[in-house]
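We close this part of the discussion by returning to an individual protein. The sequence in question and its structure tokens are set out directly beneath this paragraph:
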Amino acid sequence: MGGMTNTHPLPDWNTLATLGDDELPLLDTALLIARDEYPDLDAAGYAAQVDTYAAALRPQLEQDIDLPARLTAINRYLFEEIGFAGNNMQYDDPRNSYLNQVVDRKLGIPISLAVIQMEVTRRLGMPLDGISFPGHFLVRLPVDDGILVLDPYNKGRPVSADELRDRASPHLGGQAPDDQQLLQILAPATHRMILMRMLRNLKGLYLERGDWERVARSADRLLKLSPDTAEALRDRGLAYREMGYAKGAREDLARYLQLLPEADDLEAVRTALIELGSGGARLN
């Protein structure tokens, strides 16, 4: 995609911590995450692509049709005509988390497909909210008598309350959630929560691969969104240690223990700090 890249400036990482949880621009920050991996990314081109999807749908939705028909039209367009799909074959491919690649390849994981669906529907005056559901990310739409939950990974199809209970129970120790618990699990995810979940997914993939530079980068970006995220400090510190950056490793791991003095991995982190020769932890 050609075009003038400077017509769509992306936010500055260093300003994001000060923005409210939903003031964070979802699409632009997702593109910012992708630009770390794809420095030449044409942000204006991808933003325009999402506008194009919305423009193609608008005439269909201007007819006097009810909500189910509107959703059907949106899902049919995104998941059948354009062909967005869940990447079942290579679920662990990091490209599934980078928005430019998701748009180019029409393949994603639940959360990245949800971001596309949310951004398109927002432009059409039908704001979907994300749901940080255990396991698979979902989206929700307010309806007269409650909420409708949709699964962008499965062509946007509605998910019933019973199915939601079944999907949640393995993550709740095998117990199906009661109505109150289910409503809590289905609470709308803020933009900050969504972007942090995307970065955590990437951090996890890079940790599995031992790609320490990208672990450090993903953790660093998490800290740009939320500076006191303990697990991001720990993982950046451990990545720095692997990269031979002792000073950064010491600072991050010490800060982690300050934030979580009762951490499960207290001993391991303390040992790492002692090996890194941290001032306070030296045994004299």
